[in-house]
Amino acid sequence: MGIAKSCSIAGLVILLATSCMQAVAQTAVIARPTMQPLLIHEINIDPNMLPVTTAPTPTGGVVPPSYCGPHRVMSVSWNKNSTLMAVGMGSGSADPKCPSSGPVQIFDMSDPARPRLLHTLHDFKDWVRTVAFNHDGTRLAAGGNDNKVRIYDPVSPSSPLATLSDATKAVRSVKYNHDGTELAVGGQDHKVRIYDPNDLSISPKILPYANDWVMSVDYNHDGTQLAVGGKDQKVRVYYPRNLSILPHTLHESNGQVRSVKYNYDGTQMATGGSDRKVWNKVRIYNPNNLTIPPQVLSVARDWIMSIDFNHDGTRLAVGSGDRKVRIYDVSKPARLLHTISDAKSDIQSVAYNHDGTLLAAGGEDQKVWIYQVGIRASAKTSPSTRLSTRKLTTTSTIISESPSANSLLNKTLSSNTTLPHNTNAPSLSAGCSPPGGIPQFQAYDAANQQIYVVIQPESDPKRIILARYKGSELDKQFGLCGIVTYTTSASSFRRLASYQSLAGQVIHETTGSHLDIIATPTSGKTVLLEFPLIAGQGYRARFSVHDKVFPEGVQINDTAHHQGVMYLTGKINNKLLMSSYHQQGLTFPEKCFKSDEERGLFLRVSPDGKHLYVTGISGGKNAPYPVFIRQFEKKQLNPAFSFGYNGKEIVIDTNIESDNIRQDILIQKDHVYVAVFSPEKEKLSIRRVATDTGVMDSAHIIDDVIRFPSGKPGSFLIVRLVTSDHYLHAIIYNSNGQLSVITYENQVNVHHFDTAFKTPATKSMRPIFVGNNAYLAIADADIEKGIRHVRMQVLSLGLQNYNPKNLPPLSRAEIPDWGIGLIAVGVVFVAAVSATVFVKKLKSRQPVPVKNVTDLFPEL
User: Fold this and answer.
1) Whole-number Å distance between alpha carbons of 164 and 175
2) 3 state SS for 417-460
3) Is the pLDDT of residue 35 over 80?
4) What's the rounded Cα separation, in Å, for the pair 673 and 690?
5) What is the value of pTM for the model shown?
6) Which of these ranges, 141-150, 166-175, 747-756, has the smallest mean pLDDT?
7) Which of 171-175, 263-267, 670-674 holds the top average pLDDT?
8) Radius of gyration in angstroms for the set of CA atoms belonging to the chain, rounded to a whole number
9) 207, 238 in Cβ contact below 8 A?
10) From its phi and psi, is residue 294 left (phi > 0), alpha (psi between -120 and 50) or beta?
11) Residue 95 pLDDT more than 80?
């Protein structure tokens, strides 16, 4: 008798045979979970355990910290397809020899009987109380006793994508709504904050009426209700879409409410906590009519710590301080089905997976217990199937890098700075694959609002891939699916990664457009690589290597371009280099400053195209003020005037190590802003100088304390200045991917915003800042194929929606935990002790005419 026939005879007796159960499961959505909970794995939680993969660790290659026990499991969360599970923990104790800490671990749960540790996140300074995935699994929020909420890409969690520092006390609960448009954060500062996950720079909404610790928050399925349980014995039900409606307050018990939870269809809401009586209770409400008395379950003689519904709402799991997990059938009348007693200490968290077939329970005994409580409808993931990094990367590329229409990732400050997606081109899923290799350099074509990414294939050093992006998407109008592969026969060309620095521009000439990259080696001659950009070109092309353009000893640090000409600054044998490159010819100025040991660092073209501005370092023994700023006439490259060292005026602190300072120039119609940042001195200085007279503005002097890491040895750090409305924003970025935006109003530090990119593969990769967004191409490893796929990251800088009226008052210093920070108390030191500013027409030594450039550079 066959299986199908046996099942037809058995009728509803599904448990008659295992084979029959499997056959029924193939046609049912989910089999009714009437089976006895089966323990299939016991995870011993240890934050000192190394991940199973060899992917880059969240510490960027630095040895991870060592954690001392015990390692308490405080919170567990599954992603939607049950392939990942996040565990937040509290390690250590009050003993100074064993300080409190709170790592987060992410496990591969493709085979729940054999979980694998993928990542350990080390960014937290204290216990992690709560972790939560968003519904599509592309983001993971974690919060805890260090008053912070950190947002991660769970597939590539090398560093937080954002750190929310608004809470002033411990964070106890985080929760995304179902459509991912809201993130609720509650904690011990008596507040619930609601953030926009698509733009975390917008100030959160703060819900009223909470007057004690917020212990738990949860949304119903359609996001119309938000339940908040607190230490004040109350549950408040808010209506997020109309906060003008007063919340419904439920007077729960004689003790704190530790956990609130809606079922999937929103017909039930369960609460649990401490009743300070013999029995601690779970109350089940009808959210559609909260005036109806709840169904009350007397559950345990100890505190109820965590509750969770399964997906179809028929089961409720309850974890409590008596070391037990109880599973209830919550059909009316509710009844106890199972009691699980494997734990040896308090249960802190229970969580069903999305289809309700697995239940995770974690507690203070350093374990997460995985139980099978139902039969999966289909075996899409067999026990032998593992969740590969390749599969995770594909999911991330398709989902997390395609923001919604309302996301700020698709918005910028003005129409002329937008990088639109190419809506007419086919998506990558239509036969197009992302480029493979390691991104080495990227350049912005402002005329066409496109980003070119130069990619080095790992297999062929003579081949270069050029990918063109519109926003975060490949521009399918370029080559094949936005990609062109270039080759060269030049024997002098070598791998791009071997060069000390790369700089370049997209140049548009009457004869055609091309991407020019200047590659400076650690020794030997600087070369220029020219990539023709031909409209309608095929997917293969050739690039040229010009090794006779530059003399020996040239290093190019920055470039700019205007009307088909590329302008260059750097140094030549420790002397300042200022030149232009046009039609394969290098031009030098007719007049120069005969200063020793100088190098130009940053170069900008004025908005009217008439002048060039250069900042740099004077490294000579007789240079008391190392920073200089110079204005050049664009046509002849002759210097107009110079401030800083040449005029004997102090632009910046005199006590800094010149090799480590970072600079930027922001040119406006009447003024030039100059920013200089020293990570060692933790000091950012910004000056404003009149463009016509060279007079420094005494009313605009900023000397601010900024704590921002310079990164590991060999890394780099950059500073950028931008303006919006009447605000001045300083952007600081390091090659670990960390980024901070500091906002000034009338020279006062009024706001900061911290976020992060995934760490770039090479130090030559610098973000491109366009309007309100920052763009950086990175490589995701495909371990199965042994290659890397390139994708474009987009981060919102939060400039467009910054409004100080929506910000909470800055009551104390807040230092973001991943090391990017500042003292954000609105204090700016004017005319600091270590700097003296003279306000007058800056004296400048007159340029020296030279008959030939070799008067200055005999080696030319």
Assistant:
1) 14
2) HCCCCCCCCCCCCCCCCCCECEEEEEEEECCCCEEEEEEECCCC
3) no
4) 9
5) 0.50
6) 747-756
7) 171-175
8) 30
9) yes
10) beta
11) no
646 CB-side CA count, 13 A: 26
Tokens 């809506």, located at residue: 423
Neighbouring C-beta atoms of residue 386, cutoff 10 Å: 17
Closest CA to 420 of 84, 842, 850, 771: 771
411: left (phi over 0), alpha (psi -120 to 50) or beta: beta
Cα 240 from chain centre: 26
Q: Higher-confidence residue: 451 or 833?
A: 451
- Mean per-residue pLDDT for 129-145? 96
| DSSP state letters, 623-654 | -SS-EEEEEEETTT--EEEEEETTTT---S-T
Query: Could you report how far apart the first and last alpha carbons of the chain are, in Å?
Result: 94
Contact assessment for residue 197 and residue 796, using Cβ atoms and an 8 Å cutoff? no
Residue where the block lists tokens 């990769």: 765
Q: Is the confidence at residue 580, as pLDDT, over 70?
A: yes
Coil, helix or strand at residue 10: helix
Overall residue count recorded for the chain in this entry = 860
Q: Is 715 exposed, middle or buried (0-12, 13-18, 19+ CB in 10 A)?
A: middle
* Amino acid letter for position 541: A
Nearest residue to 425 via CA among 468, 484, 485, 466 = 468
Tokens read off for 504: 């370049």
The residue type at 319:
G
DSSP state of 480: B
Residues 6+ apart with CB under 8 A from 754: 162, 163, 165, 738, 739, 740, 741, 816, 818, 820, 821
Total Cβ atoms within 10 A of residue 613:
23
- The strand order across the sheet containing 104-108 reads 71-78, 84-91, 104-108, 116-121
pLDDT band at 802; cut points 50, 70, 90: low
Contact 707, 815 (CB under 8 A): yes
**Alpha carbon of residue 309 to chain centroid:** 32
Both tokens assigned to 102:
């709170």
**Contacts of 367 by beta carbon, 8 Å cutoff, 6+ apart:** 42, 43, 44, 45, 73, 343
Residue with more model confidence, 655 or 339: 339
Give the separation between CA 419 and CA 399, rounded to whole angstroms. 19
List of residues 6+ apart from 578 with CB closer than 8 A: 567, 568, 569, 588, 589, 592, 600, 612, 614, 632, 637, 639
- In 3D space, the residue among 758, 753, 741 whose CA is nearest the CA of residue 794 turns out to be 758
Distance CA 89, CA 103 (A): 6
Residue 809 to residues 82, 89, 703, 743, 747, Cα–Cα distance (Å): 41, 31, 22, 15, 18
Which of 322-330's residues contact partners 24+ apart within 8 Å by CB, and which partners? 323/347, 323/363, 324/300, 325/350, 325/359, 325/361, 325/369, 326/299, 326/300, 327/37, 327/359, 327/373, 328/282, 328/297, 330/263, 330/268, 330/270, 330/284
Q: Is the dihedral of CA 692, 694, 698, 703 positive or negative?
A: positive
pLDDT exceeds 70 at position 776: yes
| CA neighbor of 126 nearest in space, from 147, 140, 97 | 147
